[in-house]
Each structure stands twice: as structure tokens, then as C-alpha cells.
Amino acid sequence: MQKKSSASKIKLNNFDALFGMNETMTEAGDVRYVQISELHSFKNHPFAVRDDRRMQELIASIKENGVLIPGVARIRPEGGYEIIAGHSRKYACEQAGIAVMPMFIRNVSDDDAVVLMVDSNIQREDILPSEKAMAYKMKYDAIKHQGKKGDSLKAMEEASGENGKTIQRYIRLAKLIPPLLHRVDVRQIGFIPGVKLAELSNKNQESLESYLQSAGRVKITLRNAENIVLLGKGGSLTGELLDSVLKAENEASVDGKITLESEFLGAFFPKTCTKQEILDVIRNLLTEWKKETEGGDGE
Question: Would you list the DSSP string of 2-38?
Fold first, then answer.
């Protein structure tokens, strides 16, 4: 029996499912085979093209089957085409040695292009917090520019399936300077504390980043993020001020054992509970609390 290639494992959704388009929208554009050299990245494109396992599978699929789902682009005034959707497929074509790529050519405004670009990428599973933050900010601004400010969050919620409050948090997160955004991406700063720190002025954010570079591994919880923001409202953040918040709390972090009195535990657990059952409940509760206060992106 012939062994199936890895390309056969890739599930390719239909065009509508991938890009949120209906038949009327796709019919409005012509499919053309465009030279890869004529395709240019979307201006300020927030989503990275990653050469990972999925990309290698996509390259294998394109080598075997060609590009099954056309990208979307629009004509650039200065020549060539601006990619709205299809940056990863373009990269895969380049790696596969394919010189042309099928594209739906759309005649859309700048704002409509932004909305379409975001909607065609936002459902990806591998999106970093910084990418989602910048994408939601771009879409929100585009919708506002179209005069739909009152409906913008509702429209974004419906398009992405994401809670409106979470979308607002991502938009606020986009105000972080790039180095601090990177710390959120690599989980050195939790999502919720990052959103809070975005309230700082750029100057104070730069001071915080400089402090973190010199201080080494320092944990920023939601509580001390709130304290940092309060200090920042009073003026410039200094190393001494940041020390007063961050070092004090980090030095007071858990070290060794904490003993809970049986009388205290008895108020929450029946006498029939074993020690291990009590520890399991406490561990699960603390895990959920940590996700909510430091690393989560939910409510």
C-alpha cells in the first residue's frame, strides 16, 4: 500500500469558512494567477508568517496539489498587488518554487481591506497576544473611520466570536510599547496585568522596561501592576519607586511551607475529606486563580 504524504493530512476549509465571505463578496472579485514577485504584504500586517510544522505541511500540500484556495488582494496604486489574505500561502509558494498564485482581486477601500484582512486571520490558533491586540486595534479604528463607532465592538464580537469585553482588553493592550508586548507574548507578564500596564504613558512604560532588563526575573501580578499605574499617575517612574512595589512583593513570595490551621480548613471541608483531597481542591482553586489574575484572556 502506498504511504500517504503529510500533505494529505491537511484539512482545507472552503473559501467562505476561511475568510468570512459570502458568494456575493467573492463574485465581486476576479481570480487571476499573479506572479509572486508582484504580491506585496499588507501595510502594517500584524500577523507573523511562521516557518513551523504547519507551514512545512502547507508547503508539501502546495507542491503536491498547488494552491487550492486563492488568496485575496487588491491593486496597489504604485503597481503590483497588496495581499489582504494569503501571506502564508505566498511564503509557501516561494519555498515550493512556485512562481504564480491564484488571487481574488478585490476593489475595496483601505478600511474595508483592514476589516477583511483581520477577519481572515483572527481565527487562527497560533496568534500571539500582541498580534491579536494590533489586529483588533486596526479593525476597531477602521470601523470607527467608516462612521460605525457605535456598532464597532458589536460587529467585532459577532465576526470573531470573542467576548466584547475581551476585545476591549486586547485593544487596550495594543498601547503597550513593543518590548513590553513581547513580555506578554512570552508570558513574562500576564495578559491582565499587561492590559493594566498599558495605562502608563510611553515614557513610564520605557522606564518599566529598563527596570525589568536590569532587575532580571521579576514577577508582575495584577496587584502590583495596579500599584505601578497609580505611581505612574503621580509622575515619572523611577527605579526606587519600582523597587518599592516589585522587590518588596517578590521578596515576600512563598518560600518553604505554609501551615493552615485545622479549624480554618474545617470551615470549608467536611471531616470525611482526606489530606490529599483537600490539597487537590486547594491546588485546583489556586491554578484557576492564577489563570484569571495573571495569564488568562477571559472575562
Answer: PPPPGGGG-----HHHHHT--HHHHHTSEEEEEEGGG
- Of 175, 174, 137, 172, nearest to 156 by C-alpha is 137
Integer Cα distance of 253 and 111 in angstroms: 48
For residue 135, what pLDDT is reported?
Answer: 96
The average pLDDT across 190-206 equals 97
Which single residue is written with the C-alpha cell 489582504?
84
How many residues would you count in the chain?
Answer: 299
Q: Measuring CA to CA, which residue among 84, 87, 70, 88 is closest to residue 30?
A: 70
- Give the contacts of 87 (CB within 8 A, at least 6 positions apart): 41, 42, 45, 47, 49
- Sign of the alpha-carbon torsion through 149, 155, 159, 165: positive
In sign, the C-alpha dihedral spanning 150, 153, 158, 164 is negative
Cα–Cα distances in angstroms (integers) from residue 202 to residues 112, 128, 190, in the given order? 30, 22, 19
Q: So what's the pLDDT on residue 115? A: 93
CA 15 to CA 26: how far, in whole Å? 9
